[in-house]
Amino acid sequence: MPVNAANASAAFPDSESGLRNGLARAGDRAILQYAAAHDFVLISTDADFERLVHGVPGARVVLLHSCNYPTSTAAEVLRRNAIRIAELSVASQTLIVLDR
User: Within 10 Å of residue 19's Cβ, how many Cβ atoms?
Assistant: First the structure.
């Protein structure tokens, strides 16, 4: 299935982009604090968030580990793990690391 905004919206209907929220030049901690303050699960390929998640109360991160593959593959990994990601919002767990 091709990756487009409609597909992402179907799997994760409340998704937002940091770029569209003025966070393009914000540091990692500011991005994570924004996500936590707005009750978002942050999805990233940046391994720095694995360390930072524990220092920001309420933060939850999904890390796409070794994401050197096309966006369509990353989208498929997220779709396959949609239930785990959704459960992260209500679990005491703060981090999920996903591989291809």
Answer: 8
What predicted TM-score, i.e. pTM, was given to this entire model? 0.82
Q: pLDDT for 52-78, tens place per residue?
A: 999 999 999 999 988 888 888 888 899
CA distance 99 to 63: 9
HSE at residue 36, side-chain half, CA atoms within 13 A, is 19
Structure tokens at 68: 């050197």
Classified as helix, coil or strand, 34 is helix
17-33 residue pLDDT tens: 777 778 888 999 999 99
Domain positions in the chain are 5-98
Amino acid at 21: N
Q: Which residues pair with 43 in a beta bridge?
A: 62
The 8-class DSSP code of residue 27 comes to: -
Q: In 78-87, which positions are buried (b, 16+ CB within 10 angstroms) versus exposed (e)?
A: bbebeeebee
